[in-house]
Amino acid sequence: MRWWSVANFVSNAGTWMQLTVQNLLVLQITGSAAATGLSMSVQAVPALLMSLLGGAAVDRWPRKFTAAVSQALLGVIAFTTAVLVALDRLDMTSLMVLAAVTGVVATVDNPACALLGNDLVPAEDVPSAIGVGALVHNSGRLAGAALAGVTVGYLGTSAAYFANGLSFLFVTAVIPFLRPAPETAQRVAEERRRPDQEMTVREGLTFFAGRPRLLALAGVTGISAVFGRNYGLTLAVLVTGPLAGGAGAFGTVSTVLAVGGILGAILGARLRRPSVRIVGALAATGALLQVVAGLSPSLAVLLVLVLPMAVVESVSDTAGTAVLQTDPPAHLRGRVLGVWGSIGTVWSLGGPPALGLLMELAGPRGALITGGLIIAGAIGAGHLLRGRRTATPVVLRAEEGDVTGRAALETAA
């Protein structure tokens, strides 16, 4: 697990370095901010269409082999881009093609790597392992964004892509030496011997649709993703607009958000029994903090609120990921993650435009306040409806020959 965490830190740093440079590269080629958004969408669209197939592949094929091959392919794509940039042969068409291929490979790589990390620890330690993964992700994001500027400044744009390719090869080299936990290896071996496993996409869809707690998790996460979470958009407009701050002020807010994400990941790693109820409570708390942040009279007050907002969001994400990856039976987890990948892509593509429209209508303060109230209200309503559906035993009056206090066989109307 230590080797896997180191490898993921290196890989995440390389990925965020490339993403940072890629946005700048698109701007240099086209001079259009819209084209930058288009390149990100092209990379995300394959997850909408192919995540189900990618999840099925992860369930069907040996996990270590699948993760190693997908990481190697991502490395090849990064090296190809580096060569094209160095030779000044990269145009918008080739960049879009490479982004689309990256998105296709990621539909297999993301669930394979996520589940491979869980296989390295006993079942009771999986929530903690997911928390460690969130910590590594946030740390790699900070390191990658910082290294991007240094790398481009001293070595050029192609060096960032080349470094990301090396990071993927590092992960590929580490994977063969990883040893799954003994109980995990035995369970996987037994499941692969079962003759009744069809490994179909439909089986994963049916399981997800028939699991109320997974549907509730999708609802909580979806509404939070659309009306909250996009702090890079809402807080940027709030800081540079009503609070009269500049780019430096928003940089400070972004740094506090990143620190809060790391602290939240550390706290999330201590969760032993994550549940959808915990995810909902944390999401509602974050939404109420968002409402207060929308009322901030100054940048100082906003900075005080941003830290707990980021901590709560990070712990909620860690708890939700733990539920998602541990609730399904082991032979279905890849396909469930595939379903989740498709749903999450809808949020990531539709959320920013919806939030942007809300900001146009209500302004940055109004968007934060309205969005927070919608999230908290929806979660509260869902909790009340769930409570009303809970079956309550009815105690009948004892008749002659009956056992005193016998519960009715039916539930309350």
Keyphrases for this structure?
disordered C terminus, globular, single chain, two-stranded antiparallel ribbon, 413 residues
3D structure, described in words:
Helices cover 80% and strands 2% of the residues. It has 413 residues and is mostly helical. The protein is globular. The chain is built from 14 helices and two strands. The longest helix has 57 residues, at 333-389. Helix 2 (33-60) packs across helix 14, helix 5 runs antiparallel to helix 11 and helix 8 runs parallel beside helix 14 (333-389).
H/E series: HHHHHHHHHHHHHHEE
Compute the average pLDDT: 85
Q: Work out the number of β strands.
A: 2
Strand order across the biggest sheet?
Answer: 1-2
Shape: globular
Q: How would a crystallographer describe the biggest sheet?
A: 2 strands, antiparallel
Question: Please, how many helices?
Answer: 14
Percent of residues in β-strands: under 5%
Low-confidence stretches: 398-413
Structure classification: mainly alpha
What is the gyration radius calculated from CA atoms?
23 Å
- Rounded to the nearest angstrom, the distance between the terminal CA atoms is 51 Å
> Helical proportion?
over 70%
